[in-house]
Amino acid sequence: MEGYRIPPIMFTEKEANALITIEQVMLKNSDVSLVNAYSDAVSKIKAVLKHATKDNVELLANRIAVSPAIQNTTTSNSLTLIQEALTAFKLLNITYWSEHKNEKTERKIEPFALYYTLQESWALIAYCQLRKDYRMFRLDRMLTITKLDIDFMPHKLTLASYLKDKENKFMTPDT
């Protein structure tokens, strides 16, 4: 209902501390859109904390560090767009660069699941209409990405069965 507001959700200090701790790890994430969305959410959470909890959270935030040995390289800026398309069952049009073939291809894909790889980058598991099969697309190789206003039917496949199939073929999605 327009104008209706729900009261702020109250976090315990442990819950707030968990979010602040993860924030430090999140800042090292390779997708800028995810980092920005998480930072905005944490800012809103900090704003509604009780005064004593707020002080403790700030103290904790100033006393958590992530090793500089962990790379902080931006590899994509489209994770939140992909999340929106995935949950709304909307097609994506991408221009994808294949490292193995050293070529660009235009694809219409049906986003299915997200996977964080050993290379510390995000990948999208999607049904590729060009290849008529599920493929894994690294976000850092998507040169362009557009969410289309075209729906697709949700697939019956589960993420667990997809990953099990890959495991049974002696390959992980990371290879």
Structure description:
This protein has 175 residues and is an alpha+beta fold. It has 2 domains: 13-61; 79-168, Calcium binding protein CcbP, beta-barrel domain (SH3 type barrels, Roll). Helices cover 35% and strands 26% of the residues. It contains 5 helices and 5 strands; from the N terminus they run ααααβββββα. The chain has helices at 13-26, 32-47, 51-61, 79-88, 159-168; strands at 90-98, 103-116, 122-128, 133-138, 142-151. The chain is globular, with a radius of gyration of 19 Å. The model has no long low-confidence stretch (mean pLDDT 85).
Task: Set out the fold topology.
Blueprint: H1 13-26, H2 32-47, H3 51-61, H4 79-88, E1 90-98, E2 103-116, E3 122-128, E4 133-138, E5 142-151, H5 159-168
Antiparallel strand pairs: 1-2, 1-5, 2-3, 3-4
Helix pairs in contact: 1-2, 1-3
